[in-house]
Amino acid sequence: MTPTPPLRADCTADSAGGLTFDVAAREGGDTAHLMLRRRDGDDEVGLPLVPVAEDRLRAALPSSVALPEGRWDAYARLADGEPLRLLPGVTDLSSLADRAPSGLLGHVAVRIPYATRRGNLTVRSWLRAPHAETDGPRPADGGLTVRGRVYGTELASGAAYAELRRRPDAGGAGVRRLDVAADRTEFRLDVDYGTLEPGVWDLWLRPAGEAGPAVRVARLLDDVADKQPVFSFPRARVTTPHGTLEAVPHYTWDNDLSVSVTAL
User: Fold this and answer.
1) Which of these, 11, 168, 185, 226, is most buried using a 10 Å CB contact count?
2) Which tens digit of pLDDT belongs to each residue from 179-233?
3) Which residues on adjacent β-strands are paired with residue 206?
């Protein structure tokens, strides 16, 4: 008996943050819904699959439907059976390459479909309000320069600043305050590695100063779901009162920007 081929979904992203999924119809049983299940939680989103051609069914996830931040595994629920894990088909993410949301909604919604290590289809979702987007760190003499833009807010002139926060698991928490050059929604800041102790330092922006929200600096507005294994940056050695250190910027598992400092 010939095994039934797995179900695959072709995915297309639009510049507003929406996704469409096209699944091949099967004889003897229509696919009723496409299910998205949040991996770390009990949340589930069901999207009806409707015929768009003789052998194709389509489900739409518009940007207006909230999808909390996380990883959402994709399934197809057959009318007479258990949900089946979907595999990725043809994926078109070209509209995400130069995406620049208006920020008028007060938040940024990002959904990027990708193939897991086991070859299954999953959607990585971010929902941030407000959001600080960087175009990537640039090496500088003994440090780095970070430029970017905020969405859903503006930078208060004379009040906005940034923070490097040392993770407590590094042996003790710490905060370094950084000056920010601000122009409405555009920002620039410089990190001096010589002021840091060994540990992992996370970069935050305070657009309205101390009284306003703390916004994690990240890079979300492109077509790369997991940047950590894709983007690498030069390491720098600096001499500090704590000895010779090596520092390197990197993206976290959530595509946030951090700096790792180690003693040599």
Assistant:
1) 11
2) 999 999 999 999 999 999 999 999 999 999 998 999 999 999 999 999 999 999 9
3) 161
CA distances from 252 to 7, 44, 107, 257 (A): 32, 26, 21, 6
**CA-to-CA distance for 154 and 218, rounded, in angstroms?**
17
Give whole-number Cα distances, 28 to 24, 32, 80, 81, 205, in Å: 13, 13, 10, 12, 55
Residue 253 and residue 228 in contact, taking contact as beta carbons nearer than 8 Å: yes
The tokens 């590695």 sit on which residue? 193
DSSP state of 255: S
- What pLDDT is stored for residue 171 in this prediction? 63
Pairing of strands 215-218, 236-240: unpaired
Question: String of b and e for 163-183 (b: at least 16 CB within 10 Å)?
Answer: bbbbeeeeeeeeeeebebebe
Alpha-carbon distance of 40 to 229, in angstroms, equals 22
Torsion, CA 51, CA 57, CA 61, CA 62, rounded to 10:
-40
pLDDT of residue 172: 65
d(CA 75, CA 81): 12
Q: pLDDT digits over 229-248, tens only? A: 999 999 999 988 878 999 99
